[in-house]
Amino acid sequence: MKKRVAIQGIRASFHEEAAFKFFGEDIETIECNSFKQTFQKLEQQEADFVVMAIENSIAGSLLPNYTLLREYNFPVIGEVYLPIQLHLMALPGVKFEDIKTVTSHPIAIRQCNDFLDEFPHLKVVESSDTAACAKKIKEEQLTDTVAIANTLAAKLYGLEILERRIESNKKNYTRFLILTDKQTEVENFNKASLCFQVTNDAGSLVKVLNILAELDINMSKVQSMPVLGRRNEYNFYVDIEWNDTKNYEDAIRRIVKHTINFSIMGEYVKNDKV
Ligand SMILES: O=C(O)C(=O)Cc1ccccc1
């Protein structure tokens, strides 16, 4: 049976592209209206995996997704980095001069600011995902509208690319996490995502950082989010990577003693090539 992979958005979105990059293209994509719904699909066993964006090199972290990770507690079993290459696409035959409206996902729009600034007469309309914009143009035969989306979307919805690679920063990427509902042993893992709180007093976070430094463990990311209802208290989400598993195990044993509500959200193989 094909792996069922839940994504926020529809087929040919960047989430599906990320899923293809991680699993290959022989998967069943489960289209969802929200990130929360992807987790519900896992919970109801209507999906085997979730692929969820967690950070974009231009827009930054997707903070609500950190909260979902904590609330649902599904293990992270992998990651994938995807370059976000954006193209302007329209129904075949439509000319650039005919266009009045540009539609896309807000992250994609932000990444094309330089291009869009050159054409201030265009009305920019935000939507839930890039592929949905392409699909709408096709279904409603919109001849005055273009979508900013990827090549998968152009192919699947039969649109023509008018302008390639209109993203301002050619090195922009999005990092996606892969989650599942089953406790899966990932072999040879060398990266982990942790979550914890520290006490609100001098040096509490640095104690944790010192443990990592002493054991030669690299912190590749740190993100904090307020703990609801507790002023000046934060959940810290920390990604770490190491060469020696024994050092990782030592670090965990020691960090637990200096933190509150410590959890390992996932252990997986580092996969940060764009
Ligand atoms: O709209 C999409 O295609 C998505 O999957 C969301 C998104 C948009 C832009 C960059 C990364 C993810």
Automatic annotation (TrEMBL):
Chain coiled-coil ranges: none
Gene Ontology molecular function, alphabetical: prephenate dehydratase activity
Keywords: Amino-acid biosynthesis, Aromatic amino acid biosynthesis, Lyase, Phenylalanine biosynthesis
Pathway: Amino-acid biosynthesis; L-phenylalanine biosynthesis; phenylpyruvate from prephenate: step 1/1
Gene3D superfamilies named among the record's database cross-references: 3.30.70.260, Periplasmic binding protein-like II
Record-annotated ACT domain positions: 193-271
Entry EC number(s): 4.2.1.51
InterPro entries on file: ACT-like_dom_sf (IPR045865), ACT_dom (IPR002912), Preph_deHydtase (IPR001086)
PROSITE patterns per record: ACT, PREPHENATE_DEHYDR_3
GO cellular component assignments: cytoplasm
Gene Ontology biological process terms, A to Z: L-phenylalanine biosynthetic process
Catalytic activity: prephenate + H(+) = 3-phenylpyruvate + CO2 + H2O
Record's protein name: prephenate dehydratase
